[in-house]
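Cast an eye over this sequence plus tokens and explain the fold to me:
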Amino acid sequence: MEPMVLLMLLSILGVAALFVALALYLRAISRELEEIGGPATRFYKPVNYLSKIRLGLRAIEIETGHLVPQVTTLNTALTSIREGLKAIDANLTGVIAAVQHQESK
């Protein structure tokens, strides 16, 4: 048998072994995912744990979607409060400096 024919046959055998291993591992992964997802009822009533989690997350997303305008309003109000507190801080710093200056006399 020629060396090129032998190498070709070994390559074909290697590729076939690779595809078989890939198929076996994909099936094992699929089994694990089905186990995690809960009982799969395919087309009759597709309710499993993952779909329940997805529906719960969707409900949370819908319920918290109304917070965005309120948070924006709250953010502007808190920004104005921050500016007021900075002004108070500056005034108190001036008062403290004046008291210290008066005590040193």
